[in-house]
Amino acid sequence: MKQQAMRLVLALSLIFGLSAAAFAQGGATSSISGVVVDATGGVVPGATVTVKNEATNATFEVVSGSNGAFTVPSLTVGSYTVSVQLQGFKTFVAKEVRVTAGAPTSIKATLEVGGLEQTVTVEAAAAMVQTTGSSVAKTIDLKQISNLPLASRNAIDF
């Protein structure tokens, strides 16, 4: 009897432990994608794109494809620095690139002809516009619900 109870407790502990680990895998992520072009607008394949999280200093590195496109998936929400470099071109750096949950960020990196020791830093970039979707999302809090002109103030009726 004690062995069966012990086995049941062990089995339940294992199930709950694994399910907790599965929930820990979730989180708010998004991606940074874009295209690398030269000063004339031609695509630049084979450029090294480095994305660095400004809060954690975690870095991710990808290479632009034959069409100049790149994607860095599964990035946590936050602010990133994106640098693009290729031999024979000046290094492109975009600081404070914002990644928000569920909305991919897009960048167009323009490389100028020059040496690797030269760097072009984009300090005051234009606001990143989300062009991959047309949805708008906003979280409504309790104060906004209570200010609605409804007969009932119950959030379930909303």
Characterization of the model:
The protein is α/β, with parallel strands linked by helices and 158 residues long. It is 18% helix and 36% strand. It has two helices and eight strands, in the order αββββββββα. The strands form two sheets. A five-stranded mixed beta sheet has the order 3-2-5-6-8, with no helix packed on it. The longest helix has 23 residues. The mean pLDDT is 79.
Entry keywords:
three-stranded mixed sheet; alpha/beta; 158 residues
**Strand coverage percent:** 35-45%
Tell me, briefly, the overall form. flat
**Total helical elements:** 2
Question: Percent range for helical residues?
Answer: 10-25%
List SSEs in N-to-C order: HEEEEEEEEH
What is the distance, rounded to the nearest whole angstrom, between the alpha carbons of the first and last residues? 52 Å
Strands side by side in the biggest sheet:
3-2-5-6-8
Radius of gyration: 24 Å
Biggest sheet character: 5 strands, mixed
Question: In terms of per-residue confidence, which ranges show pLDDT below 50 for 5 or more consecutive residues?
Answer: none
Number of strands: 8
The structural class is alpha/beta
Can you give the mean pLDDT? 79
